[in-house]
Amino acid sequence: MSSFDTDHHRVELQVNGEQRTVRVRAAETLLYTLRDHLGLTGCKPGCNNGDCGACTILVDGLPMKSCLMLTVEARGKQITTIEGLIGTDVQRAFAENQAFQCGYCTPGFIMNCEGLRHAHPHANEETVRVWLESNICRCTSYEEIHRAVKDVFTSHTDKGRNL
């Protein structure tokens, strides 16, 4: 057996609805597996310590910073990347509200918003604010991002809510 065989683990992942198999080191984070092994470059490396949110994906429907999760921990989980949300209402709302500038952080914000929509379909202003705190944008004022998130919620929930 070569050292490659003993140092690497075969991991089956469910990514964007597809079964994918990779061979990774035990210490490899999901961020780099998605980018380097699967070519899903929408999740971005930023701080690599969970502070910025540029690498946010959904794991079983909830936002997760992929720089903090080992690939081997993702076995049996449903993983969704920004590539899995093409054409969704959340993506459309961000585009229509011009909720981006350079765009580097945008996939993370979109993933976080999608997770929020599923976890709290009737989120109030405070819940939205708290969830958006987990992502950082260094280019914009967040006003457009907040407007995009508000549009997602008002188009899918009770119009009488105050967001």
From TrEMBL:
In this protein, which residues make up the domain named 2Fe-2S ferredoxin-type?
9-85
PROSITE patterns tied to this protein: 2FE2S_FER_1, 2FE2S_FER_2, ZINC_FINGER_C2H2_1
The family database entries (InterPro entries) matched by this protein are listed as: 2Fe-2S-bd (IPR002888), 2Fe-2S-bd_dom_sf (IPR036884), 2Fe-2S_ferredoxin-like_sf (IPR036010), 2Fe-2S_ferredoxin-type (IPR001041), 2Fe2S_fd_BS (IPR006058), Beta-grasp_dom_sf (IPR012675), Diverse_Oxidoreductases (IPR051452), Znf_C2H2_type (IPR013087)
Its UniProt pathway annotation is: Alkaloid degradation; nicotine degradation
CDD domains, A to Z: fer2
Q: Does the keyword Manganese apply?
A: no
Query: Per the UniProt record, which residue ranges are transmembrane?
Result: none
Q: Which UniProt keywords apply?
A: 2Fe-2S, Iron, Iron-sulfur, Metal-binding, Oxidoreductase
One molecular function GO term is:
metal ion binding
Identify this protein by name: 2Fe-2S iron-sulfur cluster binding domain-containing protein
Please give the organism.
Answer: Paenibacillus woosongensis
